[in-house]
Design goal:
By secondary structure, the chain is an alpha+beta fold. Helices cover 17% and strands 50% of the residues. It has three helices and six strands, in the order E-E-E-H-E-E-E-H-H.
Length: 117
C-alpha cells in the first residue's frame, strides 16, 4: 500500500533543445512496495514557449541539485490547441532509503520525511 510521505517545491531550469529557462517544480514522494520510494516530479510550462523552442514530447528539468531529469508531456505530441500551461512529469522509483532519497532530491530534508512517515 502506498502512503503519501512528503511534498516539496524546487527552483530549477527547463531545457528544450538546448534553450533554457528558469522554472519551478514540485516533487512528491510516496512509500512504494517494500523499502522503495516513488518520486513524482511535476512542472507547468508555457505552451507557446515550448512550441517556439521546438518541443514535441519531452524536455529536461535541471533540478536545484543540478541533476538533469527527463520530463514528458503525457498527452502525446504538443499541439497549439492545447491548454496554455502544459504539465510535464517524471517518475523515479530508484530510491531505496531515506538517505538515498534526500541525496538525490535535496528538496526534501530528512526531518520532513521522518516526521511524515
Amino acid at each position: 500500500m502506498e502512503n503519501h510521505i512528503a511534498k516539496a517545491d524546487g527552483n530549477g531550469a527547463i531545457d528544450v533543445n538546448g534553450q533554457v529557462s528558469p522554472i519551478t517544480y514540485t516533487v512528491s514522494v510516496k512509500q512504494g512496495n517494500g523499502h522503495s520510494y516513488e518520486v513524482e516530479i511535476r512542472l507547468m510550462a508555457p505552451r507557446d514557449w515550448l512550441l517556439q523552442k521546438g518541443f514535441e514530447r519531452g524536455a529536461v528539468l535541471v533540478s536545484q541539485s543540478g541533476a538533469r531529469i527527463p520530463v514528458y508531456h503525457d498527452s502525446g505530441r504538443l499541439d497549439p490547441a492545447d491548454t496554455i500551461s502544459i504539465e510535464l512529469t517524471a517518475r523515479d522509483d530508484s530510491c531505496t532509503s531515506e538517505v538515498d532519497l534526500t541525496r538525490k532530491y535535496p528538496e526534501f530534508d530528512g526531518a520532513a520525511i521522518a516526521q511524515a512517515s
